Amino acid sequence: MRLNDVASARTLLFVPGHRPDRFAKAAAAGADGVVLDLEDAVAAEDKDTAREHVRTWLAEGNQAVVRVNAADTEHHDADLAALGGLATVVMLPKAEHARDVTAAAAVLGSGTGVVPLIETADGVLRAREICAAPAAVRPAFGSIDLAAQLGVDPDSHTALATARSTLVLAAAGAGCAPPLDGVTAAIGDEARLVADTEHAVALGFTGKLCVHPRQVAAVHAALEPSADELRWARGVLAVATTDGAVGVFESTMVDRPVVLRAERLLSRAGLSGAPA
């Protein structure tokens, strides 16, 4: 995938790297992009085979993010070596240092990017540094692994709210695109999926990782601004002045920060009036 496409993606759909029969199906499932997974979804004995399947798919001109194995694993270097000249963006799990982001991009070559997957306590605490790495496109949140390390329920919005907010702040401070939220493991629970997505949006996330095609449409719908939000955004822009003077809409002051929020809401909906 192109860097800009990854930066603006609402959904990225995981597919195991050793299952090439699923690659095309995942690409056609309606997600903004797919993640060919060489890490958790692939057993150690299948790593080599998975790399070859992923290489073949990319060499045929198909687009995907590739999740490699973590920098401190025995499989990491082989993953990067296999992807050189083919992958434009890789997802780096257990990201804890900016140097690992930079090193991965250096192996892959000029113009490549990295989605650091922040899923450990050290990763959260160093999120600003990681997001500031020149090759970092946008971070993603690994809620399940972090919850396991912290000993909390991965489904608890309260338990992981600080970590999520830290990641949003880190991305904004570093100038990255806003982060992607972690997966909802309950594939058949659409209500849970929607609640998770809406919670992430409220904190500043603009996309979500998916583990099944049936999750994609529900996530896209949950990411859309409500009709009332769009009405508000249009009203704000209607009274905004080009010289930056303060306006009023529905008895509320409209200044530059309010205008920016309105523009971002319209941008999320793909409507005019959004910032260039």
Automatic annotation (TrEMBL):
Keywords (A to Z) from UniProt: Lyase, Magnesium, Metal-binding
Coiled coil: none
Gene3D superfamilies, alphabetized: Phosphoenolpyruvate-binding domains
GO molecular function: lyase activity; magnesium ion binding
Binding site for substrate: R67, E119
SUPFAM superfamilies tied to this protein: Phosphoenolpyruvate/pyruvate domain
GO biological process, one term: oxaloacetate metabolic process
Binding site for Mg(2+): E119, D145
Limits of the HpcH/HpaI aldolase/citrate lyase domain: 10-213
InterPro entries listed in its UniProt record: Aldolase/citrate-lyase_domain (IPR005000), Citrate_lyase_beta/mcl1/mcl2 (IPR011206), Pyrv/PenolPyrv_kinase-like_dom (IPR015813), Pyrv_kinase-like_dom_sf (IPR040442)
One Pfam family linked to the record: HpcH_HpaI
Domain of life the protein comes from: Bacteria
Cofactors that this protein relies on: Mg(2+)
PANTHER family: CITRATE LYASE SUBUNIT BETA, LYASE BETA SUBUNIT, PUTATIVE (AFU_ORTHOLOGUE AFUA_4G13030)-RELATED
Name of the protein in question: CoA ester lyase
Species per Swiss-Prot/TrEMBL record: Prauserella cavernicola
